[in-house]
């Protein structure tokens, strides 16, 4: 068994070492993200970084019973109602932008200056990059990495693939990841059979599935569900042909 080299360990913990080597480490991190992006362009996603983060957080908090409920399905097995619902709810410019909706970001910043209720301006592409490759948090490091990670997904993947991965790894409840697991848990049916109303309800809880509940929708969730359905009707399912 190899002995731990205390001097090497102390050197790794030294701020001076990190300051001298940060560019090399950052380059290696980008290379690793690029490799994962290439691999995940084709194969089903076994798990996401956020799933791992949630599992570790629950273990450290003493919740050993926490389980990840996750089941991958291709986009062809996800109801067009669900595909349209998340676009209507989260990112109506998804087919047109290259990863970032700067108008939405600007509106969110103006809103957050005046309101205690924080509004996000992230696109589906940004949320996919964050959930798949990074971690949840407000650090500048995570926000900085999110930009190249999003650009990488937009460059390597099609819009259909980004939407497919997003729908499969998004969290819809405590430990419930992906629309297939959510559909079977809440509605006892596969995701390909979701109605417009059910899809809108699932999309309505996406901003914070730990507070907003599919099986116990608050008045706010019901109001958001109704709004999403109206947006879906205005967009129409032909909107999906733009992807």
TrEMBL record:
> What family does the Swiss-Prot or TrEMBL record give for this protein?
Belongs to the glycosyltransferase 51 family.
Domain of life, per UniProt, equals Bacteria
Natural source organism: Haemophilus pittmaniae
Cell compartment(s), UniProt = Cell inner membrane
Functional description taken from the UniProt entry: Peptidoglycan polymerase that catalyzes glycan chain elongation from lipid-linked precursors.
Q: Does the keyword Transmembrane helix apply?
A: yes
What topology in the membrane does the UniProt record assign?
Answer: Single-pass membrane protein
**What is catalyzed by this enzyme?**
[GlcNAc-(1->4)-Mur2Ac(oyl-L-Ala-gamma-D-Glu-L-Lys-D-Ala-D-Ala)](n)-di-trans,octa-cis-undecaprenyl diphosphate + beta-D-GlcNAc-(1->4)-Mur2Ac(oyl-L-Ala-gamma-D-Glu-L-Lys-D-Ala-D-Ala)-di-trans,octa-cis-undecaprenyl diphosphate = [GlcNAc-(1->4)-Mur2Ac(oyl-L-Ala-gamma-D-Glu-L-Lys-D-Ala-D-Ala)](n+1)-di-trans,octa-cis-undecaprenyl diphosphate + di-trans,octa-cis-undecaprenyl diphosphate + H(+)
Q: Name one GO cellular component term.
A: plasma membrane
Q: Which gene encodes it?
A: pbpD
Pfam short name (any one):
Transgly
The upper taxonomy is:
Bacteria, Pseudomonadati, Pseudomonadota, Gammaproteobacteria, Pasteurellales
Give me the segments passing through the membrane.
Answer: none
Q: Which UniProt keywords apply?
A: Cell inner membrane, Cell membrane, Cell shape, Cell wall biogenesis/degradation, Glycosyltransferase, Membrane, Peptidoglycan synthesis, Transferase, Transmembrane, Transmembrane helix
List, in alphabetical order, the GO biological process terms annotated in this UniProt record.
cell wall organization; peptidoglycan biosynthetic process; regulation of cell shape
Q: In which pathway does it act?
A: Cell wall biogenesis; peptidoglycan biosynthesis
Q: Which InterPro entries match?
A: Glyco_trans_51, Lysozyme-like_dom_sf, PBP_transglycosylase, Pep_trsgly
Q: Which HAMAP family match?
A: PGT_MtgA
Enzyme Commission (EC) number: 2.4.99.28
Instruction: Specify the Glycosyl transferase family domain's residue ranges.
Output: 66-232
Q: What is this protein called?
A: Biosynthetic peptidoglycan transglycosylase
What would you give as a GO molecular function for this chain, any one?
pentosyltransferase activity
